[in-house]
Amino acid sequence: MSPPAPLFSRNVNQNMSENDEVSKREDTISLKYYIAHVLLVLGYARIWPVKTFSLITALISTGGTIFFILINSVLLFSEIVAVTMNHDLRLFANIIGVIGMHAVGLIKWCYCLYKNKEIVDIVTKLGSCHVLCQRLDDSEEGCQTYNNEMEYARKYSLYFLWCWTFACIYGVLHWCANPLLLEWTLDQISAINQTSNQRILPFVAWYPLNTNNIYNYVSLYLMQLIGGISPALGIICYDTFYVTMLMVIYVQFHYITMAMKKTDNIFANESEAMFNLEKKLKNCVDCHVEIKTFLKMLQAFSGPTMFAQCIETLIILCLVSFEASVIKIAFDMESILKLWSLLEYFLAAAFQLYIFCFLATQIEYLGLKMADSVYCCGWELLIFGKSKLYGKELKGRDIGRLVQVIMIQAQRPIVLTGGPFYVLSLETFRVIMSMAISNALILHTLINRDE
């Protein structure tokens, strides 16, 4: 049964005036301004349709996307072949973790390319949430507060983009530079001992080529370097988009809770205050429903990739912990480079999962806090006041029903999941970290028993 008309419908003229006010404001603070850096990155990755690109830029970005994905696929295939030919558990642990990272990066990039229309729909729906949030408090102070909150989201999203890009590219380049440094050290030792040394590639993979040949080695090294950068780019594109969406929703929830608790003018004019409160509650209902619809769309889009992300993170943390536990500590170049690479790998995987879980936990908390903020909006002071205004009883019923609707909607927690098994929360992060370390200790014990 549909809700009663007075509760959700708006007067036509009032609705048109609100839309005019919002449209004027959108010219200066549209949603695309706050997420322009994300859309630009997705545009270069051919995920977001950018109309401002020239023909040459579009061709270069398209060709670069195909080239990176192709090289990543070849590298991933060669690594899988190397796994099937390997029977050493320690080497297997080294290969499978890198395969997981390369596979997830490739999956994220290709998945975004395949679901680019859904990404456009998600951004469009977020734009609707953006417009409705601006209607919640159309005063100058309210608009300024919302702009400041959204500016924080833009800055933190931009910081995350730069920091995550630096971390991913640095990790790949550092991982690829280790073999060169290690090979130079071994060459010095071989020259002293007059022995030969086989050339080392960044990633363990199978190739039908002789790596001792300098031309083959340079070609394979460049291919692995590009193949390592390619999944990093896919991870950067997807993670930045997902984190930015969560940051914007977090800011909007935070703004709604602040706006609903604002009761400055509640005693100025009782009839006007009741009208404004009813209007604010109606906008709050619309905004809350729109945000929950957006989160359902985001969840449907991100479910498969976040499931792969959780599985890959668990495997990486487990195998990295296992590798670190079986390395014999020695003050030589090989041990130092290996430990440093594993530490970087472990911290990057843990930080990536932590960001997702932290933002999901904050959104769940603010979603539940919505009921408290609405209950504290001062509605009871107007409904149960002593004055006898005409129509106040009817208005009071509408306001009371609106408060009940919002509180009932807010009782259901907003839960973001990683597939059918993982709930993105700080508790899940703690469990995955504990499980990874426990599994690493078990593998370490089995290795020592076999030896």
Written account of the structure:
- With 451 residues, the protein is an all-alpha fold.
- Helices cover 81% and strands 1% of the residues.
- The chain has 14 helices and two strands; from the N terminus they run αααααααααααααββα.
- 33% of the residues are buried.
- The protein is elongated, with a radius of gyration of 28 Å.
- α6 packs across α9 (214-261), α6 packs antiparallel against α10 (270-326) and α7 (116-136) packs across α10 (270-326).
- The protein has a two-stranded antiparallel sheet with strand order 1-2.
- β1 and β2 (422-423) form a beta hairpin.
- Strand arrangement, largest sheet? 1-2
Write down the secondary-structure element order: HHHHHHHHHHHHHEEH
Number of distinct helices: 14
Q: Whole-number radius of gyration?
A: 28 Å
Shape: elongated
How are the SSEs ordered, and which strands pair?
Layout: H1 5-8, H2 12-29, H3 31-34, H4 36-44, H5 55-84, H6 89-114, H7 116-136, H8 140-193, H9 214-261, H10 270-326, H11 333-375, H12 379-383, H13 392-411, E1 417-418, E2 422-423, H14 426-450
Antiparallel strand pairs: 1-2
